[in-house]
Each structure stands twice: as C-alpha cells, then as structure tokens.
Amino acid sequence: MQPSSSAPSSPANSVGSPLQSFSSPSNAVLSQPLPFIQKSDEREDESDVQDPLCKEAIQACRKRFHHSPKEEQLRVVKHIYNKQDCLLLAPCGWGKTLVFSLPMVMWKDKITVVISPLIALMQDQIKKLKEKDVTCLLLSTYNGNRVNDSDIKLVKEGHYRAVFMSPEVIFGKGSTACKVQDLWNNKYWKSQLCSIVVDEVHCVDKWKDFRPYYSQIGSLRGKVPGVPIVGLTATLPPDSLQEIKNSVFLASSTVHVIRVDDIRDNIQLEVHTFSLRNRVRQLAKLLDNTKTIVYFDSIALLRDVQDKLRPLRPDLRMDAFFSTRLSSSKDKVLLKFINSEIDVLLATDACGMGCDISDVITVFQYDLPHDLTSLVQRFGRAARGPGTKGFGILLAPPTTSRKYNKRPDILNFVAPQLTRTRTRKRTRKRTRTTVGGNVGGMWWMNI
Asked: Where is there biased composition of kind Low complexity (predicted)?
C-alpha cells in the first residue's frame, strides 16, 4: 500500500563487580517521578493495527527486519502515510530508527530525508540500512568533505531512498551547501518525499546556541508543504517540547505526540560528591574492568582526566572518543570497544546518540552535565542487553558548589536524594555523600 492520494503518488546477566554496594537502610530509592514527561496524550484503538496499512507494515517488518513492530512504531508509520506530523518520545534502544526505516522498505519509490546531529550516528544508520538493500547517501561538509555533482544528480533522480543530512549542509554556506539547498527547488525530487525525519530532535532546543542552523529546520515546512515532519528523541522536558513544537513544527496544533513510558529497573543510580582536588583519584578507585563509558561535557576536560588517570590505573585498557579525532581513529576505537578490547571509554556526546552497545555495564557522568536531559540520555547507555543490570554514576560537586547556580534542575534532582555519612581521617573531617537504589521509579526519565 502506497501513501494515500493526498500524498505524492508513486513511490550478560553477569554484572561484573558492583562498584559500590549500598546496604544501609537509609539509602534513598528514587521512587518519586519528577514532572519530566507526562503520560501519553495520544491513545489509539488497538484495532488500528488490523487495518490494511498496518498489516502491510507488519509483513514488511517481519520479512526485512525479522521481528514484529511495536504498536507505537505502527502508529508513526500510519501518521507518515496520512501526511501527519509526528513526535515520538521513546527510550534509548527502544527502536526509534525502525519508524523511518520501515517506510523505506514498504514504499520503494519514496524518499526519506533524515536530519541528524552526528556524522558517526548517520554513518552507523546508513550501514545498517544498506544491509537491508536500502540505497542511502550522506550529504555532509564534515572534515572538508565535498559532495560530487554526480551524487546530487542521482539524488534528484530519486536513486537514493534515504538521504542523510546535517542542518549545516541544508542551511549553511559554501559550494556543497549550495548544491544541497538546490534540491529543495527540484519539483520532481520534492514530489517523491515521504517524510522529513529529525533524529535526536531535542538538539533543536539543546544545541541551538552553538549550532544555530538547528533553529532553521522549521523553515523546510514552507519548501515542502504537505510532507510530514517526524521528530524522534528519548527525553524531552515540557519546556523543550513546546520549544520544538514552535520551532520544528511551527506551532502546529495537529502534531501527534506519541510517548513510550519504559521503566528501566535494571540500572542502579549512584551519586558521589567529590572535591575538585581528588575527583580523578575517586574516579580511578571506582573504575573496574567491566565495560564502562565515562562521559564528559568538554574535550579539554576529557583529555585532562585521561592524562591524570593513566598513571593511576595503568591496568585499565582505556581510550577516548570525541568529535575532533580523525574519523578512521574513532572507528577503530569504537570497534575495539564493541569487541571488548577496551574496558573504559572516555567520551563526549560524539559517542552517545544512537550508539547502541548492549553490554555496557556502567556509565559515569564526570562533573555536572549541561542539563538533566543529557544525564538521562547518557545513563541510558548502560545495561541495554536483555537481562543485564548496570550502573549510572554521577560524580558531582558538593551541593554548595556554585556550579549548581546555572543547573537548578540537577540540584533539585541530586540534593533530596543524598544520604550523608561522615568519616574521619587523622587531621580533618571529610564528608562522603552517596545515593543508592535502582532506577525503577525513574520512568519519567525515559532512559
């Protein structure tokens, strides 16, 4: 079944050693959800999955992806078919990629544009789609990359069913960007568009200050009226949701929001406070040889910690992944980590969104993240394999730190949960603060 006539026609259960066990009865269990994600505002009759379109989608999914789609995935496909804007909020590893991959194998004459923030993420998605015989192309100016005229010609002719782009190549300057922008003036190509997918759509609000072209994504609506926009993300606070509705969907009152509430009771959350002087040593003590990601908010901080950590833990197989490393080097590091040749990966968000490594046991956040959304996204990288258990550990400054002044959401999250235990060492008193418990009550975080 092709899109309706109103649409363009044709187309380890072992958890390694727990880093810190919490047996004290005073340990807080995070059971009170914050007002982070409300219940779904869309409920459709389950009989919808029995209509001809959904039956076709189920058959295609079983044939090409070897499993049955979830009900919410079918809803998104149905919205695309009906040319309706849609926003899907679902946890990391839930299967958001399928909602735009499935139409590619169902409607072979249609084209999907995928706008994504990270080259590594797009390359990974393209690799997986090519394994399903979906023709794909990445249009990018990354590392001085240029798009050939022959590539643009094939895109205009509809040779590629999936065209991946970054916001910079759509709205930026330079010869490559001009070639890509010319696509939006090509009537034939536009007539074949099935949907415009904005992957990791929370970046529209989160990254708008240092990647300003994100704020222009909504202008595509005027270039391709009638083509549905599909936003995908794992975590979205209410204020960001409204901002994205205004920016991406141009305040459309008809955008369909689908939320998937998923309890991750297999991740134990821990919060450790530290002094600025000894935080690297504390991290060194907490690390073990289980597969671990340590997230940083800046490359400079990552490199500094890496230099100090090596002599403290020479036994660890450790490497780093960040955006300014050569692509070939990043690929090698990531492959080694996937194959368990590296125990500890020090990383920025360049190794994050869309990165699905199922046997990561522990995720650290070193120092405060930019916002609570980032923390949720990163902790969600732990224990994604069936039956596994893991840890999300925040290394935070004391609650008296001025760093919290600009991050009240994180302070409100951390402070009430802290259980204080005092220990004395010869000449002075130190305070060590931790919180233990599972994340069963953290459904609101959608990790």
From this structure: 1-18
